[in-house]
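[Solved] Which block belongs to which protein?

Original post:
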Amino acid sequence: MKKTVIAAALGECVHVAGISNFLRLADQAGWKTVFLGPAVSIEKVIEAAKREKADLVGVSYRLTPETGERLLGEFTEAADELRSSGVRFVFGGTPPLAEKANKIGFFELVFEGGEPDDQVLAFLKGETKGTATSIEYPQNTIDRIKWKAPYPLLRHHFGLPTMEATLAGIEKIAESKVLDVISLGIDQDAQENFFHPERQNPRQKGAGGVPVRTREDYIALYQASQRGNFPLMRTYSGTDDFIKLAELYTETIHNAWCAIPLFWFNKMDGRGPWDLEGSIREHQQVMRWYGEHNIPVELNESHHWGMRDAPDVICVVSAFLAAYNARAFGVKDYIAQLMFNSPPGLSDAMDLAKMAAMLQIIEPLRSDNFRIFKQTRTGLLSYPLDPSAARAHLATSIYLQMALKPDIVHIVGYTEADHAATAEDVIESCTIARRAIENAIRGGPDMLSDAAIKARINWLLNSASLTLNAIRSIVPHSSKDPFIDPEVLSMAVKKGILDAPQLMNNEYAKGTIKTRIINGCCKTVNALGKPVAEKYRLDNLLDT
């Protein structure tokens, strides 16, 4: 049976926009809502609460604080009997009056305007402990996704060059309650050489993130997050000693999910000690380990191709191979990463088509034992240097991403082109993102119904099927499944079936493909800069 909430603007107050939004969210959370209107007397509110057998009463007043304070005193006195019988009360008003309402101590929660919709929704869903102002935040990824829906989880990268600054920053971010997942950025030495201090270079300490050097460092970072909205914490899988790091992360920061590539973080991109084929084998074993421990896995794969100017079709193919490998190696909860703006010149429409194609190509893999969750993000290389323009880019990019109804939005701070985000930068970027998300969730155009986007999706899916068939064609006789065979996958890169312009002169790749942004798409082109069909490109490759 639905619980009932009634709401009204008290006394002579006629401002009801806040009440309307509160009741909209209450309806979304499953409440029966009763709107009493503007300028409602105390007596009528009390009568309505009794008549409707209200579980929750919301009142607001947005006029003179002094008048409002007297009115609230009268209201709390008249409503005290209802409160004693178990009816809950909330109040909304201007900041000065909200401060006074808090001091009265009668209201379970006081709104002063500007509270994010997702926080109000969390209250209305009733996930509380003790008092309603102390929300019980789920402490694993899937439960938190379900709890926060229809709003996505917000994730942001954070890690400064010293432990002291990072610890202080994490505390500040957690207290702000704007972020659901702190994606811990650790320096390169920690990713590759945590278990090999003899290989660490003191002169590179803090390069790329926080220099964690001991198990106790990780525990301290996690403890710093245990306040505010208790954000989850996660970090990348590292580039060596993968299983040992997985065990460490799980035991210390309670790694929310694993993020690992299929083809990258090795000698091919200069970010790890393994060769391409060896790293694929290692990455597959990491997937298996996390799958066995029921921890979600994200393969941050396709955007690495896009960031190296690979054509859209290869990005789509790599998205399929990533999800296919995750399923094959026992991952149960798969986070499909969708980085927009990679490469940066894509048009919004064609970028959206590319991401939608990635989701469509992996959808047949979904099952009760392989759940797929969508994570979108803004392109790392797409931010302008000007901070005002960068803020605008962040907001518009996330609004576009919301067309895919993501479960997680990985916010890339607007300062990305200039410096690693401070705690203040993270909080500001999250605030910008939350507003864009709220606008989108309240209702926007169905961008995926656009004819040009649909046509591009179909073209990408048809072309991707040709690329996947090309990978099947190079299978050694001993291979049972080419899409999970490290030898076949590394051969696909070496032969150029999977290729990117920035892999030129790379010993593990062909690096001869040429691409160009044409009509908003990243396409393969010939020496004259003219588009080349995927079938023609593959036929030429495999004939040589």
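(Second protein starts here: sequence line, then its structure tokens.)
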Amino acid sequence: MGKTLTVFLFFLTALFLASCEGKGKLVIKEPPNADVYINGKHVGKTPIELVLREGKYTVEVATSPFDLERKKNVWVYFDHTTELVFHPTPKGLLVINSKPQGAVVMEGRDPIGKTPFKDKVDVGEHHIVLKLGAVGASRIVNVEYAKTTELFVNLEKAVVHFDAEPKDAVLYIDGKKVGSFPITVELDEGVHKIVVEKDQYRDTFVLKVKKGDEFTVKYVLTDVQLPPIQAYGPISFTPDNKYLITMGKAGIYFWDIKKFKPQISLYDPKDVRNFDKFINYGISEDGRYVAGIKPIRRLAYALPPELKGKKVDKILVWDLKTTFPVMSKMYPMEAVITAISKDKTKLYYFTKDGSVKIADLKTGEIKGEKSLNHTPVFGRYVNGKVYIGTQDGSLVVFDTTTDSVEKTVKIHEKAVRDVNTTADRKEIITASLDGKVKVFSADSLQLLKEIDVGEEVYSVALTPSKKKIAVGTGSKQVKVSDYGTGEQLYTINLKFVPISILFADEEVLITASSIHEPEIDIYKNGHLLKKWIQTIR
């Protein structure tokens, strides 16, 4: 019997040692009364002391279903007590799936699972990356407290959400009509041709996508206007018709009207705060030099003693090859027109008192002075001559090759507000406050055509083909008619009196306001030109 008892005691001792072999303790006291999960299984509430086999565990402590903290890779060592403290934080449920499934889900660079994925994560913004072979996609998700946030990623195609304003525009992709907006489309990886159309407004875009992409593309039909630099007239084209010339808040601008961006900006480097604005400009026949008239009215400069108390104009001349001023000088005068001689050696200033000052282009020194015997209002340089409309309705032709008045003709009963020319420069067109538009031969000033508009006319222009004529009136309208028959084609209503108008081609008309209400608008066949703007988000 003693032998049997000895064997039994040995067996109990061995069983006890086996039960203790390779185990340690895990103690969690804080926070109190919180649920404890080991490898996802609920094991009790805090405070708690657990005996676990030596190994690596995932431990989670939750004070509510969506307030918890999870610690991964917690080691429990043999014959050792590990004590942990938890600080549960707010969580939301994140559910992620993909097509196809099995993509690795990463939070930044850390793998957190595979699709389909479902887990509670911290409230806030998360940068999620999905990878499946060579295809990868990233998304930003915002998880809210106690709410479910779902994310689905197509790793076989790109998902594009198209929207537009107005909604009834039509979408075409790769030549096929897709429909109206808003619409969501799955696209194969590659480059796609996108066309958006609404009435006569149609624009084409290129969209490059890859597998796993998902974004929103929006198209907005916006009025085409020059950028908000307070652009105003008078306006003209450079001799090569490459740029539209306007004035603006800080200087004189040369615009590519196809891109609606200023390509060249001329400014006064000594007036960085732009106290005074330019009122007119002249450009040499070859487009090399530009002269600007800038009345000095706001004490932007320290005037020399001999100019104090007088009305002063500053004249600047820029070389367009460098865009730097080659001449800058102040004069005691009020010029309204400036021009550059054909040989680019002389400048002409036509002043309010009816005089013509002739200056050296490089130095600005006055070399001579002539009289117009009329008050100039507006002038246009054409083939070496300046055609000047006057306050009393006359047209004065000043020849820059002889520096003399070649001819003066009384053509209107009231002030001539605009003098324009045809594209081939063979005709001169005048607009007057007497309500008449007249067309003359540039060489002989023979009257070729007279149009009675019936109200004050401030501007006039012919299309390059001379098939259409536009007149800008004091009633803030531009009336476009058939030049041959006189039939009115359309009327444009403006917010300003158009002091200067130009046809860019047979369809596009540009209207310009005065310096007092700066605005330049572009119209196509009587409709304010609009273009689709694409934004991708």
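Accepted answer:
You had them paired correctly. Confirming on the second one: The chain is about 5% helix and 60% strand.
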